[in-house]
Records
---
Amino acid sequence: MSAAWIPALGLGVCLLLLPGPAGSEGAGEWGSWGASRRSQGLSTSGYKRDSDPAPWASARPPEEEGAKVEPPRGAPALTPAADLLLLTCFSHAPIAITCFTRGLDIRKEKADVLCPGGCPLEEFSVYGNIVYASVSSICGAAVHRGVISNSGGPVRVYSLPGRENYSSVDANGIQSQMLSRWSASFTVTKGKSSTQEATGQAVSTAHPPTGKRLKKTPEKKTGNKDCKADIAFLIDGSFNIGQRRFNLQKNFVGKVALMLGIGTEGPHVGLVQASEHPKIEFYLKNFTSAKDVLFAIKEVGFRGGNSNTDVAERMSSTTVDSEERLLRGKALKHTAQKFFTVDAGVRKGIPKVVVVFIDGWPSDDIEEAGIVAREFGVNVFIVSVAKPIPEELGMVQDVTFVDKAVCRNNGFFSYHMPNWFGTTKYVKPLVQKLCSHEQMMCSKTCYNSVNIAFLIDGSSSVGDSNFRLMLEFVSNIAKTFEISDIGAKIAAVQFTYDQRTEFSFTDYSTKENVLAVIRNIRYMSGGTATGDAISFTVRNVFGPIRESPNKNFLVIVTDGQSYDDVQGPAAAAHDAGITIFSVGVAWAPLDDLKDMASKPKESHAFFTREFTGLEPIVSDVIRGICRDFLESQQ
């Protein structure tokens, strides 16, 4: 063991105990080096010693991979991931940290740190209130609690034990997030002032090699934009699976999460554990980077207890508890009803997916839970691992449970692995399924799987003020639907004797943009040729998206009689698979409205004497669209 004195910027000195070269007496090289760092309160978690099959063992940001730094002489080669805090051993100065340094990066019971100013509040990851999960940003927690402002300043950090149920509180411009459980916590108070300036860069004992520079803290990644899905992994935490297979299960889920390409604009994932009482371990909104998701998966504890006794052994002495046999169905129903909410981070227009892991045999209630999931628009995938052993077969009431629980019985939503060993080769095929949003049949609802074109009468008899009421009618219908690049799509055409495409289905993919452009449509004024307008819309608006999987609807709003035939063009639209709702105002003939409307006529044709009477028809049209959509899915 050798000693090295390092000057401390004029503030003092620090003695570092360094491991001797390989072959020297005493403890092993890594052990003595780790002991030295731990004695200083510094983390050794970022130093990779050997390979680890779990994905979180190599879950550093790409910027850190290979960014080697020069360790003290005689020490093993290390990466800078955890070499954060030289100033920990200084007695007179707080530690300068970055905006994103987390509580888990500091391994002392008490530490004074210095937060930089100007950190972006919206990028802080904070979990809890007063007591924060150690995965939280220290500076973010300090701002959240009011210890410092966003101008930065000294903070004192106190390490605390882990806990359950970190609360979500909006304070000082930061919305903290809920977290069901974490292994360590911390709290913050006002720290001691210092003359040291916080630069936002951590101070390190290591020096980068010549010609290399350490990368800055990476920004939040957008993720895989071609894989937009909100995914809940429903893992088995019952006594059936045991601690060992539970860990292998987590390992596999981590590999899948890593390959998905998690990011702000890519897939979001959460995790639910099935045990005596289903528990949501973390929500979709909690983590938007693969690294944080992997840490969270690693932290999930086995709720079934420490028993590793398999079900066959338990059955030899007693009957498996009926509550335990209902775990999967109960947990799936709980996930479908409670997990996919706006408050939990679900996104509109994005497919909702539950991946259910079943080791051996499921409960007899899983079919009913699958029905509930489909009613909530959730795509259920079943990943079955191994097959029921002979002793279990007597309790499997329906061997076709997979076909009845999944979203569709077409082979796409079921996946089988022979056991939990050597599962790497099964990761990519499962990820490809989860990213195939066009096949997520159960996510298709009337709100996110329709194309609606509005054909708006701009003739002289309408007038500008009434034309505005027509646009309001159109907006109130459009804003009900989940408009996105993979969801509902809206288009609008205005007509007189001529036709003008105000915007097509592919022009705008957000609700905000669609509503804005509807408000700004200019009134044309002129005659009324509704038949020509229908033909124009079928050809120029619906024609380019004829391969779309969405169901097509045309809503016609007119105030008078057409100067041309409407029956022929409307019949052609019906033959093209377009459902027509006709809405007449004032002088619009009832016969024309019925000729244009789809069958049954009485539920697809509407009339009001006044333009102000359009508002009550909004809900009728929306209900009609949803009714027709559901009938088309039968």
---
Amino acid sequence: MEKLLLGSRIYFTDITAKMTCRGAVAILMSTLFMTVFCANQKRVDTSLVNCSGIEYPFSRCNLKPNVEILDLSHNNITIIQQQSFQNLIKLKELFLQFNHITVLEPGSFAKNSELRYLDLSNNFLRDISGLPFNRLQSLTHLDITNNMFDTADFGAEINKLQKLHSLRFGNTRLSSLKSSSLSALRGIPLKEVYLITGLLQAYEPGTLNALQNVEKLSLDLQFGQKAELLINIFKDIPATTTTLEILNSDLIKNAKNINLFFPLKKSNILTLVVQNITIDDALTTHFFNSVLGSKIEELFLNTIKMDGIGNWKIIPVPSDQINLRKLHISNVDNPNFYHFYSLEYFLAIFAKLTELMILDGNLFYVPCQVSKKMIYLTYLDITTNLLQEFSFIPEKCNAPFPNLKTLIVDRNQFSKLHKFSTLLSKMKNLSSIRACHNDLRLQKGPACTWPQTMTHINFSHNNLESNVFGCLPVSLESLDLSYNLITTVPNLKRLRNLREMFLTANIIVSFPEIPVGNSLKILHIDHNKIKNLNMHSSQALDLVELKFSNNPFECFCEIQTVFNYVQQAQTAILEWPNQYQCDRPQKFKGQAIQFLKFSPIECKIPLFVGVLLACVVILVIVCIMLCIKYNVTWYIRTLWLWLKAKRGVDVSLVENKFEYNAFISYSEYDSSWVKNKLLVQLENSDPPCRICIHERDFKPGKSIINNIIDCISKSYKTIFILSKHFVQSEWCHYELFFAHQQVFDDKKDSLILLLLEPIPKNSIPDRFCKLRKLMNRNTYLEWPQNEFQQSFFWKRLKAVLNLDFHSCSSQVTQQEIIQIPDQI
């Protein structure tokens, strides 16, 4: 059988630590808590007032009648007068510790019948027999430790405290305990008593019998060389007491080689706490012999200074007679631990344990025999030790800790995850493992093997990377991989039972891909490197709790899905909105996502483009319809023909000289009037006018368009013979268009409109829009039917055509305006 050795690095039960003054901390714990609590709440809750440490009564403390919790600790109060608290009728908790109180006047608490908690510790009260407690019918907790009284003589008034459940009394001046001293406590329903003494010189047997109903007894005793006093005290422990605390005693100095603990065998103690004591091998032997033969089920050993080498002569006890089920060991300091004997005979102690904690003990090896022996163990915590894979569960060790369900191995030296999982697979009933603050890594190698019962894993504060997800058991329900080196989270389809996942403080760059229908309810992915978030996929998840704060979010349009998700989802978003801030772009840096505002154009580009395209299409359709209605295509085609023809015209021939007085544009149906009247009048005049008409003057071989442009360019004026036939002629329309373009090119008004017959404006086709404009804007000549008026008509027309014709052969800048009187 392998031996359980305690050497230079303790194997299993020895723990190194330094002594700390835990007793004093315990005394002040409630005081400090309430002081901090008051400090945090006094501005919010008017029923709580914190005036601790303000030099009261030399400084003012604002006390209102509705005060329920009052902290006056750490001040300069010397006396409690009758009127001190008489107005505070609702007062329930009063903290007066660490003052200079010497006197409590009669009736000091007469008006405080609702007071439940009173702390008068660490003051200068010298006599506790006359304390004015008779009106405190609601008091449940009283602390008068560390005052100046020399005897624990309680007066009759304390018996009025029929609701008192917790009493703390005594000090280092107290040297004797008599039955008459505590007799006044008889009949009070006390449940917890904390007793402090100085160097105890006398103890009258039966003194503790007054504590008839006490369930928890804490003894902070100094008994000098009179070890029998402690024995007598142990004998007097009330039968109702199930929890015993032994605090702050140097047993080696005062009780060497004396069996102090044998009375525990006959007591009803179920929970024993030993804290801040010194002990040697002999005392340890007596201690464990007494514990193993008693009813004690839970043993807590904390801050123990041991002077021994493990020479413990433990009397073997059949395992079925051992009641010890829970053993917590922490902070054991032994300068001689490297001389420790083998403790194989000690295995019986572990046989019936269901819960074992060994904290901060430099434990680096667990013998296989020990792990096999502990068949009832369900909870094991061996935090802060030196264990590795091979030293915790040796390779050839089969079925260790056969019924273990929860294992905690924080702050050890485990490093290879696949080996670690393999050793855990030997524990067939293990369901929860916590291995934080190790050096776990997953390298290429054999696949991970886990117990089929594994449901909870906490591997935070390690060096695991993204490939760890391929190593995890499919039975997993809760996973904590916070503070690792994970960059991505692969698809979690295989982890179909996963309900909780904690990935805080990794280097994850994108939101995890979680399949729809997954069992995940809680997800923490805060303090990572996630920049972009699109929560549309997350809306299908049935999350109960989500935390993704403190990531370097890039706040572009997609970030609005986060705010929408928070508004619509039933999920609790932790730390929203303060810890969800933008990192980029610079204009939003430091702003909370909740308060971002984006314009519709920025964030709905597809919609904007769609609307824009629709508008363009509509505009094109409208333009096409307008073009059809107003013959725009005709104008474009005509303009193209004009430009094409314009390039072919010999500009040198027409640039500096007019060859014709006028070019006449007319319809074929009006040619008889033109030839018989118009040409006769103009060409036979004195001086004669040179007239250009298409039937006579167009050059053969040239295109019609080029001839029209050429003739218009060489003519001083262009005369349009307007009639019903004219507006129906396609070529007349061309001539009008080209002539109008010539007006813009030469910057002169060379058009003459001659109305041969009345033309209703509604009869002019749409493509003659220029003609309409010209008729509306310019004055036109109208052919009169009266012969006298015709004579005047010819004179005016001839005058216009011959007006300075020869001097204008190089350029014309004068705009001609023909005014026809209404009546001639």
---
Amino acid sequence: MVEEAGYPDSPEEHQHMAARGLFRYNKVLKFVCPATNWVCQVYFLLAARACVQFLPFSSMASSQDSHGDVEAISHGGSMKRATEPESTEAQVKRIHLDGTSEADGGETARRKRRKYALLLSYSGKGYLGMQRNPGYRTIEDDLLTAMLRADLITDEGCTCPQIFHFQRAARTDKGVSAARQVISLKLPEDVPDMVSAINKHLCSQIRVMAVRRTTKSFNCKSWCDSRTYSYMCPSFAFAPRTEIMNEDYRITPEVLQQLRTTLDLYKGTHNFHNFTARKKAQDASANRYIMDIDCGEPFERDGLEWLIIKIKGQSFMLHQIRKMIGLTMAISQGLSSVDIITRAWGKDRVDVPIAPGLGLVLEEPHYDKYNKRYGTDGIHEPLNWEEAAQKIQEFRKKYIDSSIVNTEIKEKPMLKWLATLPLHKFNISEASSGNDHLDNSNATPPRLQAAVKLGKYRDMENHDRGSDDDAEDEDEGDLDQYRVVPVNKPAEDESKKIKLLYENGTDNVLVNVENGVERENENTNKTGKVLDGEENIANKEKVYTQSSG
């Protein structure tokens, strides 16, 4: 019988001692009978079996001894632990659901979770996009905080939602709203009304519209077949240069038809590397498939005529839709020819403007393949959200559309941005020079001559720093790409930065556009020569702050 005093202090020490004993025993066997190795193997296996049978007990005994409640019984030359009382059925169920028992001190419960898909609607005004960004207010951050307060996720899950398999169907940018956004994650199944539990901790700008139980492997991003976006803007954004661009403008059937013809060019698979940031023409991910794009009929609201452009594609890159809309506006206004779209799909870098983000709305992520495979199996529900259509429409009218209309009327971001549109090159940057800052420079009215001079400063700067391929839209701000610092400025003027747009002053480009006045600048004569523009450019700091989101 093995004496209790001979036990090591811990299970680990006992395991090490047994391993050393087996190793020495094997060496002795090989030395005694080297010719019959199979005899050594038989004896060694018998010894190993005895040790393996002995190890579990010694580990348990040592572990129980460390807690001071060892109750060993001598039974037939071996040691056995005293039997423990069996757990009740309620205790077993609690341990299965929570992952803890009452003896563990009642720690945070790990509840039984299932995969769910949540349908969201939100207004992006005041938010820095959907995805969490530490230090900034985002949709995702408010949503996770609401789930934490509703006791649906833990503190660790709120900090790192990936532990609950959190995923979003689309990542919207700053100021972009969503009529239907889908997220997927694992949530506890013991919550009767999950929609109300989350919504009572959210602000009025964000609402959970519906919840669906999905398959275990469902991922709202990878299962998404396509996404539909819409862009809502005033109709004067597509007014030709011959028309007065103001809030009284109403689009004609001819202009609307030409707009739809231009939009049709985007359909199909093309290389959109010029329509995003930090993408090269050689990148395979720059190729995107546009399934459908169309412009609806104009409608009036609060004294303005509005248009909604809907675009459906497999996926979209950063700023892609806004640049597609911005280039279409430039073509409609006659600032560039329609072939700029096909040239932008080439390998060369093309100057493409980016429209304000205010009117961009995520309409819906589509799950056609998922619905076809699982939506009719009798177990899972299809992700079509038909029962929430009325609530979504009411939310959109109250929070999304009204925000777009009110912001445009009060802050006029579209009018202000349109004033910068003629300052783009709309040509291939590598082939451009300081004399062709604008493709239509010969047709530029005299009031934009000062802007052309600033464009020459920009070209001089680009000549020193390299081509546009070396600096791909690194700044997220819409106006950062228009800021110009002249080369070889005197030392005393280095603190003065020349910017491309001006406030009310002698150069009334912005004022004329906002008031809808088609007149030449007061500081130009009939020949178009700028009388004092050069002095104004050199001596005045002209600052413009954009509020388009």
